[in-house]
Write a structure and sequence with these properties.
heterodimer, A: mainly beta, 6-stranded antiparallel sheet, B: 6-stranded mixed sheet, 4-stranded antiparallel sheet, 5 helices, about 40% strand
Amino acid sequence: MVTGPVGLWVDWDGDGFGTGAYDDLTALVTHASYSRGSAPEITGAAQAGQAVFTVKNPNALFNPDNDLGPLVGLLHDGPPVWWGMREDGTISGTSDAAVRGRFAGRVVEVVPLPQAGAGDSTPLAQIICEDPLALYGRIPVALSDDCSPPIPPIPPLEQYGTQWGLSEVNFTWPIAAPGAGNLLIAAIQQRAQSAFDSSIAPFSENSPKGTPGQLPVAGTTYTFIDGFNISIDGGDANANPISMFWRDSTVDDTLWLDWKGLAGTSRPRAYQVEIAGLSGAPSVVATSANVHCVRTDTVYPLATITVGAAGYIWAIMGYSCTGVESRGRMLFTPRIGKSLLQGYNFDDFGPFSWFGYYYAPAAGTYTIILDRTMGAPGYPRNGDRYGSLLGFWAGPESPGYPA
Amino acid sequence: MSSQGEIRAALLTAANETRVDLDNEIGPLFISLTSGILLDLLTQINAANGTRHFVKPKDSRDDWYAYTTRNRQWSLGAAADASVDAGTEHVTAMDGWRVSADTVINQQIATVDEPEFPIPPIKVWEWQGLPPLPLTIIAPSPLVFDATYSDYVLSCPDLVLISSGDDLIIKVEHHGYSSTITLTSAGTTTVKALQIDGRQAVRDPSFTYTANDLPSQALPRGVRAGPEISGDFVGPKAEARGIAQHVVWRYGQATIRPQVVIENWLPVGFEIDLFDLISFTANQLTVSASVYEIVGLVEEINRAVDGAYHVVQTFQLQQHNTHVAFFTLDSSHLDGLDLLAY
């Protein structure tokens, strides 16, 4: 036996019956009439149930043009309605009689009932309702199979969004990870800038690659994470700052990406990845010291990051101008990281950078190192310096970036 | 292969309707996909197997309601849920106590077009829209279209596409009689050919089952046929035969469909609902403990004084066919008269 609330209840503001000053209209009900539609033949169509509740209308409560009423803005079709009485026919006071639901549906009309004459109030109103069968008559529905061909696996990192240029960098995504809410990470290294510039940021745009005058697609500008300036002994003229950015993908993402705010001949090198299963800002960020290269050394520990869970460490590492390509590798310890995307220098004074990830299997401390055992003889020069910038995103392993 | 009940449940789920109380509908179907307006599809299932549906308010306010179905076996052979005696209850009106030919269905036709799905797949659709092929798709503007088939196509049809340029991301949602295709380019892609191959239904010659109530037809009224029952939701031949026989059994003779108004019949009046049974007695009409099914219910509540309400219930009734012996075995291992089928 069900006991509990009885009477007329309308969930005007969608927060459930019983929450809201005017959800309970029981005391206002003067008359109710309702039907439960059906048809005699078992193969015939059923009619939707309907209800008309006549209620008192104190202070023009149900007048839709009453801008001062407590239900202003809520007098529209759609709010859920429930009407129940006790088995003894009561809807007020207390009783041990069982409750019986008598009508349930949604409001379709609220109608004040003005009287003839010049009165200044409308004493009654009607709340007209239909049961859900009426709503079903307007709901398109489909039972479907997803027959889409399998989406190609996210390409290897080396194919994934890297570009360089004189004064701008822009990408064409090889393929976008499906759906909204994927983590997008972008990183850049510039040449000959005295310091990193947090005002630069990549954004999506709808114009074909290389078209001047692009405007950002709303909501697609990245958020600056951190920057790190890699200076040299010879001065900032050849310093090469690195920076990292993030945002979450949207369904409106285009496959075009551009950067804004770059200096005229910064000779940037930029990277971008999209990672399904992660989102939001990094929970931990770390930068390295400005490590001074000594020609005879081959391994340079850079930044150390301590993480509290399993997840991805993404890193950009670069060094100041060195002349020609150095065949170093960016690795993580205590475990060897995946092969990381290696950039190359634009010219003798261009930046040289790597961008890549390591999937940390558990909480711990990880160090990024430069391993130059593959380095070309004679480089880097003694004056060159290395730097790195790391961000950590806790989360599951993503298929495109296996551990 | 799915069942009528599984399709109904899946349709309701697809419409985000979680408040359901569904009766058994075990009739098998050849199809598992469909699309359309929810109520239309539910009604088609009802027409195919004799299930009726309604929205039953829940007794708890916060439970709100349940979309409820009653299959065609509901209450058959059951005892009345309530009894009314016009001499003792406050019955204020008894209308419609007449025998009317309007209620008679003594011939019912049910048609099945059983499909076969030949192997191998054949071309079931090709692009004939605008712009004509070749057409260009650019990254910001995916091409979205519906491919509609002349008959049901099994999952999953193959999208055959020849293109040049950047990669395409292909999304195919197959609905049985149609598919929704979305083509998204990674840059600029030229589509040169576009068609769909699939295993489309080839229909056997229609199987039509006609159920007749010959004694009823022999009366002066003659043959009175019900609306033909057909469509994918009927299922195989045995199901068509079953629903046709049931309709004729149920409506072959004129049934009385009265309307009874009862006031303040509490608590009993609030304990019964659609498709429950009422035993009715009225000396004026020479009716004694006759059983009727509730097929319509209207209530009117008038506020008398604070806290007191006058409850007027109008029950639309239909004479209940209690002739179930033909389908009942007189003994069983269950130790009783067990109703096996209708």
